[in-house]
Amino acid sequence: MSKEPKIVIIGAGAAGISAACRLFEGGLRDIVILEAKDRIGGRIFTTDFADNVVDLGAQWVHGEVDNIVHDLAKEHKLLESSYNLNDTNRHVFVDATGQLLSQTESSKIWALYYTISNAEEEELTQHEGSHGDFFIRRFHDYCTKNRFTSSKRASEILEWMGKFDNSIQCSDTWFDVSSRGLAEYKCCDGDLLLNWKNRGFKTVLSLLMHEYPNDSNAIPIMEKIRFCTEVKTIDYRNPENIIITTNVGEDYHADNAILFAGEATHSHYYSTVHGAVMTGFREADRLVEYYGSYSWKGDDSSNESEETPGKQ
Ligand SMILES: Cc1cc2nc3c(=O)[nH]c(=O)nc-3n(C[C@H](O)[C@H](O)[C@H](O)COP(=O)(O)OP(=O)(O)OC[C@H]3O[C@@H](n4cnc5c(N)ncnc54)[C@H](O)[C@@H]3O)c2cc1C
């Protein structure tokens, strides 16, 4: 009788957890997951904030067709649309001094951001450099042709666009993102901005592990995880005895090793959630929402006004 293979999964992000669940459901039990951090989720990182949550990593379910995350959540009606975020007329900008920009100017800024971001695929593919280079060049071209604001304001807007873009591309700087790569990103059809109501993206992990809606049939994946265990080397020379060495000097022997350490594994942060954390965008959004009644300088409490309170 052949013995059950020993399987080592590296990384307890969505891919690692999902693989472990599938193996478990297939009857395999001799599994260990080695995770560098002290938590599961990797780039899914939902944290509590007041009576709600903030997602520091994955936040939206992008699309409904051929999207496994959507399929998992749909059954339990866990998602709702954030369509109003796409309405550029519902957002106003605040400058570093706390001055509100008018609705008209704010809408123009959004429109400009989307015009540059939604550049034709051909244009993106032909650009050899980074997304940052591409965007800045297009931004300056636009400013030269349409003097829509002062040069000081233009550089503030460009700085904001860079930060906003990092929060979307999950990059530390937009010079790390390839312009051509963006053209290769394929969207699923359907609503691209579905949120998890007040639960956060980590719910997908509970769905995978069958902990939601009730945990009586939960797959005991958590007990298979070794936290704070970073894989340092993998010796594949003998496929029947793969040796995985960790930071704590332990060796794990496996018949099969599955590497799901994330496509952008970082030598210090392990997973790239820090990009979003460092921009501070997610926290800022939640703070503004939470302290919604705070009166900004120049806010006459009627944002519908076409006046420009922050005009300089
Ligand atoms: C800021 C941000 C926003 C995002 N927004 C969305 C979104 O809105 N919608 C969406 O669908 N997707 C979004 N994504 C992408 C999504 O989060 C990732 O595609 C997905 O979570 C990747 O899962 P993974 O398991 O492949 O990798 P990861 O989540 O990166 O998991 C890898 C795991 O391996 C661990 N690890 C790495 N190296 C080692 C090692 N040497 N030893 C042991 N463990 C190791 C890491 O700590 C981590 O836990 C976003 C990502 C980020 C960063």
Description of the molecule:
- The chain is of the alpha/beta class.
- 32% of the residues lie in helices and 13% in strands.
- It has helices spanning 14-25, 68-74, 103-117, 121-126, 131-145, 151-169, 179-183, 203-208, 274-279, 281-290, and strands at residues 7-10, 31-34, 46-49, 52-55, 80-81, 194-195, 225-226, 231-235, 242-246, 251-254, 256-259.
- The chain has a four-stranded parallel sheet with strand order 7-2-1-11, with helices on one face.
- The longest helix is centred in the middle third of the chain and has 19 residues, at 151-169.
- It is elongated, with a radius of gyration of 23 Å.
- The protein starts with 6 loop residues before the first strand and ends in a 22-residue tail after the last helix.
- Residues 301-312 have low confidence and may be disordered.
- The protein binds flavin-adenine dinucleotide.
- Flavin-adenine dinucleotide binds at residues 10-16, 34-37, 42-44, 57-60, 62, 170, 230-231, 260-262, 265, 270-273, 275-276.
- Residues 10-16, 34-37, 42-44, 57-60, 62, 170, 230-231, 260-262, 265, 270-273, 275-276 line the site of flavin-adenine dinucleotide.
